[in-house]
Amino acid sequence: MRELSTKNYRGLGKKESFLLLSLAKKDKEVFTIEDAEKILNNPLKTLHFLSKKKWILRLKRGLYVRVPMEIGPKGSDDYIIHNFRIASNLAKPYYIGYWSALNYHGLTDEIPSTVFVAGLEAKKPIKILYSDFYFVKLVKKKFFGFEAITVDGAEVNISNKEKTIADCLDHPEHGGGIDEIAKSLFFSHKEIDLKRVEKYLIRMENLTALKRFGFMLDVCGIGHDVDASGIPNSFSLLDPLSPKKGRYNKKWFLLINKEINPESWMY
Questions:
Q1: What is the pLDDT of residues 33-44, one digit of tens each?
Q2: Most C-beta atoms within 10 A of its C-beta, which of 2, 72, 149, 218?
C-alpha cells in the first residue's frame, strides 16, 4: 500500500484526518461505528463532518464506507460500492445466495433487483443506497455449500453452483420462481454437478425440494436419475406460490400447480 500521511487529507481537521489515515492503514474501507470508536473517543461528530465533506458514505446506522481518494473531488457523490460488498457487512455468518447467486454464476440472465443473503438469524429487509437486501434465515443443517470470491478487492461469501440450485429448490420464492429455476437447469445442467445437487438436498432433509428436482430433470429431458425410493407417497406442491390446483404426478408425488414448458424458452 502506498505511503499515507495527513497531507493526503487536506481541508480536514486533525481528528478527521487521523480517523481516515488510521482506517486506511488498517485497510478498512467498509467500517462500523465500533471500528471508529477503537480509533477515536466519541467519533460521532467526526463521522458527521466526514460524511458532510463527502469523505465517507453512510450505508446505514453504524455502517460506513471510506471513499478512496482516487475517486476525485466529488468524493462520495461519485462513489459506487458493489451491493455484494455491502451485503457482506450486514450479517455474520452469511452467504449471498438464491436468485443473486443464480445470476452471479451465469445460471440465469435475469438480474434481480434484490440481494438475497442467507444467514442463521432473522433480519428485516433493508434498502441501502440503490439496492434492496432480503435475509433468509436458515437452520444450521442448511448453512453450508458456499465459497469465497473477490469483489472489488474484498472477500465475499456466495453459494456454489450446486448449493444455489439446491437452495432455490428449497425456497423457489427466493430463486425467481419455479420456471426460472427449471430454465437454469435446462440451459446450464452441463455446468452443474447434478449428483452433488441431489446430495445437498438429501443433506438438507427437504424431500419436497428433491421431488421438484427429479420432476424438473424429467420435464427438461436431462439424463440424471434421482433416487425416488425414499420419497413418501404424500403429495407436495411443485410451486409454493401458485394456487393449490392442477394435475397429480404419481412418480414424484407432486401437485403440478404450475406447468413447465421448455419449448417456450427456445428463441
A1: 999 999 999 999
A2: 218
Cα 157 versus chain centre, distance: 8
Under CATH, which architecture does the 6-79 domain have? Answer: Orthogonal Bundle (1.10)
5, pLDDT greater than 60 = no
Does the reported pTM lie above 0.85?
Answer: yes
Number of neighbouring beta carbons within 10 Å of residue 168: 30
Residue spans of alpha helices (H) in the chain: 14-25, 33-37, 44-52, 83-87, 98-104, 161-170, 178-188, 194-204, 207-220
Q: DSSP of 127-169, one letter per residue?
A: EETTEEEEEEE--GGG---EEEEEETTEEEEEE-HHHHHHHHH
Question: What proportion of the chain, given as a percentage, has pLDDT over 90?
Answer: 82
Residue 267, pLDDT above cutoff 80: no
More confident residue, 215 or 4: 215
Helix (H, G, I), strand (E, B) or coil at 15: helix
**DSSP summary character for residue 190:** G
Domain ranges of the chain: 6-79, 84-265
3-state SS, residue 187? helix
Q: Could you tell me which residues are beta bridge partners of residue 115?
A: 133
Of 6, 92, 19, the residue nearest 49 (C-alpha): 19
